[in-house]
Write a structure and sequence with these properties.
CATH topology of the domain at 103-321: Rossmann fold
Largest sheet: 7 strands, mixed
Strand content: 15-25%
Number of strands: 10
Distance between the termini: 32 Å
Number of helices: 11
Order of helices and strands: EHHHHHEHEHEEHHEEEHEHE
Shape: globular
Strand order of the largest sheet: 4-3-2-5-6-10-9
């Protein structure tokens, strides 16, 4: 998910070598904006009036799996987008990013599919699953049994609306497993049921929501969702076998605290390759594990188009057990 309220232009980044330690909230740069300025910003960056032409795989999934006729497709997508928007005004909802299934082209995603199809013992957990679009793609588009798939999102309403998006309700009849809960809350125990359940964890558009320290906490939680056998392996294991975490997020050529939108009152830590490895080194040190990462720009220009910031990139990542 992405930022919930856009604002006006501010400095691009505050590069730092390790975890930022800010205790003072930055001033809100939206002060003084007119209503017309706010509306123009939303339309440019957060709430599209046209459906992007990059959602072909989602259209195919809705056509083949959900049996949504082409003549009804756009109206259906606008209707569910606005219901999701009413739950929370994330720009990834307003921009129809929940309809983007282009991650299927990622070599890390394809490796995960190979594993899931090769062994019924493999289990994938999708964190920040939104409406469950990745899980439905894996199930219908890639032939992975629903019994091997589970998802979690902060917003139960997103999960519930997924059954409206894909017309495969009621939820209680679904073979997919969904759990709503706050991954970073010490008080919310909802996701505890997922501990030691997965061999693969997918997390798209999640890391870029948080500070360095929150990302360390997230990574430790992700490791807690792994089965014991997912943390073991021998030197003879292939790269496919060692792949453990995968996804996409906003990254940066210059790693550090960034304002994701062209303007935002909140800073988040965005990574380049070096800083993402440092993050997983710190997570590993805290959990007695070792990891190596790949962190590569994908869909050149997308990060800048989404944020208005030439330093920001859209990145696909993979994390493997290190030997």
């Amino acid at each position: 998910m992405a930022e919930s309220e856009p604002t006006v232009a501010t400095p691009d980044a505050v590069p730092v070598a390790a975890a930022p330690a800010s205790t003072t909230a930055p001033p809100d740069p939206r002060a003084g904006w007119t209503d017309d300025q706010k509306r123009a910003f939303w339309k440019t960056h957060s709430y599209f009036e046209a459906i992007p032409d990059t959602i072909g795989p989602m259209r195919q999934l809705l056509r083949e799996y959900s049996h949504v006729p082409d003549a009804e497709m756009d109206a259906h997508l606008f209707a569910v987008r606005d219901k999701l928007w009413a739950v929370h005004k994330y720009p990834c909802i307003g921009r129809f990013a929940f309809c983007d299934l282009n991650m299927t082209k990622s070599p890390h995603y394809q490796a995960a599919v190979r594993r899931l199809r090769a062994s019924s013992d493999e289990r994938l957990l999708d964190l920040g699953c939104c409406v469950g679009q990745v899980l439905r793609q894996l199930m219908h588009g890639d032939g992975v049994p629903a019994s091997q798939l589970s998802g979690s999102d902060l917003h139960k309403a997103f999960i519930d609306l997924g059954f409206e998006v894909f017309r495969d309700g009621p939820p209680e009849a679904s073979e997919l497993t969904f759990i709503a809960g706050d991954l970073l809350s010490d008080d919310d125990k909802s996701c505890d049921v997922l501990e030691k359940s997965a061999t693969l964890v997918h997390a798209a558009n999640l890391f870029h929501l948080f500070s360095w320290d929150e990302q360390v906490k997230l990574g430790k939680r992700m490791i807690g969702f792994l089965r014991e056998d997912a943390l073991c392996g021998g030197e003879s294991d292939s790269d496919d076998d060692r792949l453990t975490f995968l996804g996409t997020h906003l990254g940066a050529r210059v790693a550090g605290e960034h304002r994701i939108m062209p303007a935002s009152p909140r800073m988040r830590y965005l990574h380049n390759t070096e800083s993402f490895q440092r993050l997983w080194d710190e997570i590993g040190a805290a959990t007695g594990t070792r990891w190596r990462i790949a962190h590569d720009q994908t869909r050149e220009g997308m990060g800048e188009a989404l944020t208005g910031n030439t330093n920001i990139q859209y990145v696909q990542y993979g994390v493997w057990r290190a030997v």
